Amino acid sequence: MNWGILLVAGLFEIGWAIGLKYTEGFSRLWPTVWTILSMALSVGLLGAAMKTLPVGTAYAIWVGVGAIGTAIFGMVLFGESTSTARLLSLALIFAGVAGLKLSAP
């Protein structure tokens, strides 16, 4: 159950990172509301997941899900680079996240 909570926390991590781009320096109300709400939900769910998951593993996976998802959304929504080096780097982050999950108790 806590792995699922951690995954949802990571998804909200993506939500606030992408939302931050749309706030235009916190000058737009609804993107700002979404971003702040996503931040709070992300951290709150991370805290809930850490009740039983190892802190280092949970935090690294949360950051990894957020980083990979945000990078992918950046490529899709904002036309950011999809170079081979960038995609390979994201694959390495994914491998690290998967390794942490597989090695967790």
Low-pLDDT stretches: none
Helix content: over 70%
The first-to-last residue Cα distance is 14 Å
Overall spatial form: flat
- Classify the oligomer: single chain
Gyration radius, to the nearest Å? Answer: 15 Å
Element-by-element helix/strand order: HHHH
Query: Quick one: how many beta strands?
Result: 0
**Could you tell me the mean pLDDT?**
96
Structural class: mainly alpha
Proportion of beta-strand residues: under 5%
Task: Report the total helices.
Answer: 4
The main pleated sheet reads as: none
Describe this structure in words.
The protein is mainly alpha-helical and 105 residues long. Helices cover 82% and strands 0% of the residues. It contains 4 helices and no strands. It has helices at residues 2-22, 29-49, 55-78, 84-103. The radius of gyration is 15 Å and the shape is flat. The chain starts with a helix and ends with a helix. The model has no long low-confidence stretch (mean pLDDT 96).
In brief:
The protein is mostly helical and 105 residues long. The protein is 82% helix and 0% strand. The two termini are 14 Å apart.
